[in-house]
Amino acid sequence: MNWQNAIRANKLGEGKSKMVTVGSKILMIVNMEGDFHATEGLCKHMKWPLSWGGKIEDGCVTCPLHQTTHCISDGSLVEWAPFPLFPPYGRLVGSMVSKKDLGIFETRLEDGFVQVLI
Ligand code: FES
């Protein structure tokens, strides 16, 4: 494992996220109140790119497709595919994939870059 540049820190404002490719991995870099976090970039449910409309709120990211929510700091699952809310269809969509936590990666700031340990 080694540290690799992911994005210039000044290109990602507070509360914003961006999808980047580092090596062979697709990641989401998030700026939460000046702290940078790196997670897997694709939703664990059906691989939607989380930075394409994912809502960052209360330390969590919520996928826009079926609203799976993960904690950004440790990747833990908060809620799995609750949408659509009409119960029979919501349960079916959620059961298509087994529940998983979101992978996270260590980050640091170096020479103006957010670096990720990959
Ligand atoms: S693809 Fe993200 S919740 Fe379904």
Question: Can you give me a brief rundown of this structure?
Answer:
This protein is mainly beta. It is built from 1 helix and 11 strands; from the N terminus they run E-E-E-E-E-E-E-E-H-E-E-E. The longest helix has 9 residues, at 87-95.
Number of extended strands: 11
CATH architecture: 3-layer Sandwich
Briefly note the structural class of the backbone. Answer: mainly beta
Share in β-strands = 35-45%
| CATH fold topology | Rieske Iron-sulfur Protein
Q: Could you list the spans in which at least 5 consecutive residues all have pLDDT below 50?
A: none
What general outline do the C-alpha atoms trace?
elongated
The assembly state of the depicted protein chains is single chain
The average pLDDT is 92
Main sheet attributes: strand count, strand direction, barrel closure: 4 strands, antiparallel
Distance between the termini: 5 Å
What spatial order of strands do you see in the largest sheet?
2-3-4-9
Topology (elements, then pairings):
Layout (H helix, E strand, L loop, with lengths): L2 E6 L8 E6 L2 E8 L2 E6 L14 E3 L2 E3 L6 E3 L5 E3 L7 H9 L8 E2 L1 E4 L2 E5 L1
Antiparallel strand pairs: 1-11, 2-3, 3-4, 4-9, 5-6, 6-7, 7-8, 10-11
The site of FE2/S2 (inorganic) cluster has 10 residues, from loops.
